[in-house]
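Hi V.,

You were right to ask for the full record rather than a summary. Here it is.
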Amino acid sequence: MAESGKVMTRREVLRYVPALSALRLLGQNDPRPDSFKVYTESPRLLLRPQRLRLLRRERERRSLRWDQFETLWAGNAPFPELGWVQALRFQIADDREAGVRAVAWAVGPADIQRPDDVRQMAIISDWCEPLISRDDKSQLFAKLLRAVNDPRPVKTLAGARAKIFAAISLAGSQTDAHLNASRKAIESVFDGFWNGSFIASLRSAKSAVPNADAYAMLEILHVVRDNLIFDLRETFPAWFRQYPLLHLLAHYPLPWPAGENEFRIPADETIDRAGPDVRKAALSRAAELAMVAYDANAPSSQLLQGWVTNDRFLLRGAFGIPYEFLWANPYQPGLSYYHVPLAIHDEIGGQLFVRSSWEDDARWLGFFGGQVQLFKDGEVTRVDPKAAREPLDLDAAIVFFARESKKFVIPAKEAGKEGDATVFIVGLDPRSSWHVEVDGEEMIEQTADPGGIVYLPAVPSGGVRLGPAPV
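Predicted structure:
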């Protein structure tokens, strides 16, 4: 396991995550499901048999998460996503009254113009199937069919999830028209949005996946694998291999104390204007729990499991507890996240996250969304990566700003500290080429990543100079 303080690049992340199917990776340039038809039995969405058995046992054991869910339910807490929460209660506790109310909402007020409503309608249709009368089923399938046939292009992960969920739930109708609509919708989302837009934008570094958006992505991964026997990570293996630990580093060090629990606040481009968003924080944690559930044996999942098992951060509120109960597995072994390197460089997307330690009072730097953020003493400061300023030494790495100067000095190590410095140079033109001269070493050529970052591992104390490489 890597030592704390060592930088992890995309290449080094590969050591921590087992390879996906060698046949897929070596034999296909454009992997895709063998079929887009859904043959699975209900429940098809998220509650596959193994997870359903686990959650029902958790209720029998009166686990901490079930007791919190039950307490809020008995107290008539205002669950923001009441429809799918009622359906969950029906599946786990055989609460037929809750299931009937969920069906009534899905058939009636649920709005197919709202992706979140469509997701909940699909879950209710799938999980509450034994309770749905013939007339209600006809109305519900008609609404799902309209959602599936919506001609507007899918533009977001939430929109893609809604259409996929609706299509998979619609497959429960078993009529030819519904089955054909289901197959076509899933295929269109895969080709048009997933490969054509989402993966393409990740490859070109035109977009990233903020922590709060990752949960929608994880639900898509789960339901596609469960129902089409296809791992969507194969569409861009390098990015998915690096993502779990990149996600972990993309949190400000100091937890945010809220009324129900503490939150780890994910890196947010708007935090200086809007402040910490606990809903985004809850979804970020839900994504981590779902990542562990998706590939429990992966080393990165074991590190994430070590990250999520601290009950300080257990989601206890009405929004978060259903996700906490759905995905958390306290019996899954984990590894201490203190083994995760303190700096991770995303060469694909041009991002960088560095923290000085794993303590709550650590200093932190995040380069994402074209901006640099610094976190120190409980405050976030935004920095222009192209502005001239003093270098930042965060112990795990030194960050230099190269817009105005191309000459830098690596300070000598303090007494008691050994090893060469990890260096990142920011503020360069994306994908520009540079000659790098380090005192006492031969000149090398480096190419800036899509964010304009050059990474130099193991640089000894002394001078570093950059010069444009000839085209």
